[in-house]
Fold FH2 domain-containing protein.
Amino acid sequence: MNNGGTMLTFIVRQYITVFQDEHLETATCPVPNITKILKVSQLEFDQFTRDTTKLLRDHKKCSDMLAIVELEATEQDKEPFYSSTKKKLEAARTKIDSLGIDITKARSDFRSLMDFYAVQPKKANVEPEPKEFFDLWTSFCAEFKDIWEREVKLAMKRKKQAEVKKAQERVEFIR
């Protein structure tokens, strides 16, 4: 059943045959939606780091102001404002710290992904950015999706033709 085409066409056909053949009507394309990839490609780790640093500075200012309230306010005026604000600041600090860890891990995972696929940054000695990787991935996914839709339609057409032929053979057999 080699009708020519690209290697990607072959891969799509094989994927459909192996994983989706029984359920062609509900088959879903296995690559991400292009709009999601474009959105992810706009991410900048440095901007996330700057935003997290700004959150830490703002948190410090709030903590400093709360310390002033603790020192200067009377017990009667201090509560319940002080204790509830302190709890919220502690929770915020935990979230900010967690966010910083997540950003560091995401950047590390992204570097590993770039290494795995042997994608090099365009500029030497510069941290790779998601845009560099996802520009390649976007064109791949767009082409894959186009071929996928075409091949699923062809497979469904072949499946219906086979069913019609089988039904005709049964009718001929009965006669």
About this structure: The first helix runs from residue 7 to 20.
